[in-house]
Design goal:
Blueprint (H helix, E strand, L loop, with lengths): L6 E5 L3 H6 L2 H9 L3 E6 L7 H8 L2 E4 L9 H18 L3 E5 L1 H14 L3 E5 L3 H5 L3 H14 L4 E4 L2 H9 L7 E3 L21 E6 L8 H10 L6 E6 L7 H9 L4 E4 L5 H5 L3 E4 L9 H8 L4 E4 L14 E4 L4 H13 L2 H18 L2 H13 L1
Parallel strand pairs: 1-2, 1-4, 2-3, 4-5, 5-6, 6-7, 8-9, 8-11, 9-10, 11-12, 12-13
Helix pairs in contact: 2-15, 4-5, 5-7, 9-13
Length: about 375
């Protein structure tokens, strides 16, 4: 009888995806003496080689055009995945985000390697009707067909797969990526001399930055309201961020190393996203810190809020509704705001502990 294969390969599209949102799983695997190799591009979210070394993993740099649709780039990526998987021969491949899911899944099917696919959101390719959607659905059918398990982060995404007849052998629903309840814990609520709202997320249209900037214009003359933005400009918003900051409409912090300091200095975290999310990590982290949320009634966002109790839900793509809910929040008493944050923390403790996610993965890997 041969020795047990203890090799695990993790595919993602950034350092953030692997070492921020899955670090507890990586730590658990390393602690249980699995040989973990991670493969993703180096980029604005951190040095992969340095992080891998800190976590006791091996690192392979790969090139992923995260939002591009050039078929040649994707063919090269697919063959790179084939090469890596064939050389490592891991016990399991763990894939996160669209391109690792799709091309890693197809590579694993060809090579007979078990893969755990995590649907971290449907992505533009699946939600925008047209030829790209048809191709993406076809690719997903090939990718998940023989997967050991497909993990979904919300019920909407699972229903979409079923409606599109994307067949999989085994599917489980997770509470998003979960949140580390020790790292993100309740902080004292800030002083109430003014209301601080903070947008945390990639600065891009689909995350609702236009609606947030509309709110910034609305509150321009209010000395008792302050709007902050933390995030990397995924799209061409650098000039807008600088302009709004220069006019005193927002405080722009750019990409921040740790969001905790910005969350704890906020009275409310705002994410007006209509992006096809899995479950928004930013919202889970903010609620875990006992901060009320304002977000959209949209899959991947609505799951994090009990409307009127832990925050407010707004109509997607509606700057007017966002402003209305922000005004509602401002009008709350300090005690009501604090109670809203505490109720949000209780919801996260009950439903979104990251240990639930780690155990789901370990149960399958140990089989």
């Amino acid at each position: 009888m041969g020795a047990e294969n203890k090799k695990i390969l993790i595919l993602g599209n950034s350092n953030l995806v692997v070492f921020k949102f899955r670090k507890e799983l990586v730590q658990r695997l390393v602690a249980e003496e699995y040989e973990v190799t991670v493969a993703f591009p180096n980029g604005p979210f951190g040095d992969g080689e340095k992080s891998a070394k800190e976590f006791g993993c091996n690192f392979i740099e790969i090139d992923i055009d995260r939002r591009g649709t050039n078929p040649l780039h994707d063919i090269v990526l697919f063959f790179n995945f084939c090469k890596i998987i064939a050389k490592l021969r891991p016990k399991y491949v763990l894939a996160y985000t669209v391109k690792p899911d799709v091309y890693g899944g197809i590579a694993c099917t060809l090579l007979g390697t078990p893969i755990l696919i995590n649907i971290t959101g449907l992505g533009k390719g699946l939600v925008e009707k047209g030829i790209i959607q048809k191709i993406t659905v076809m690719l997903y059918k090939l990718a998940v067909k023989n997967a050991a398990c497909v993990f979904f982060q919300n019920e909407n995404d699972r229903k979409y797969f079923d409606d599109q007849k994307i067949r999989y052998k085994r599917g489980e629903q997770l509470p998003g990526s979960g949140v580390n309840l020790q790292e993100f814990h309740p902080f004292d609520y800030p002083k109430q001399d003014k209301t601080v709202f903070t947008y945390v997320g990639r600065v891009m249209k689909a995350k609702g930055i236009e609606e947030y900037l509309a709110a910034a214009r609305h509150f321009a003359d209010r000395k008792d309201v302050e709007l902050h933005v933390c995030g990397f400009c995924e799209e061409d918003y650098v000039a807008a961020m600088n302009e709004y900051q220069a006019k005193g409409l927002i405080v722009y912090h750019g990409l921040v190393e740790s969001v905790i300091d910005y969350i704890k200095n906020s009275h409310c975290v705002v994410l007006p996203s209509f992006h096809p999310e899995g479950v928004s990590n930013v919202l889970l982290e903010a609620a875990a810190c006992a901060r009320p949320l304002i977000t959209t009634d949209h899959p991947g966002c609505r799951e994090t809020v009990d409307h009127g109790k832990t925050g407010y839900l707004v109509k997607p793509r509606s700057g007017e509704d966002l402003i209305e809910k922000m005004e509602l929040f401002i009008a709350l008493s300090p005690e009501e705001k604090i109670a809203m944050g505490k109720a949000g923390r209780a919801k996260i403790e009950k439903d979104f502990d990251r240990e639930i996610v780690v155990e789901a993965y370990m149960n399958i890997i140990k089989q």
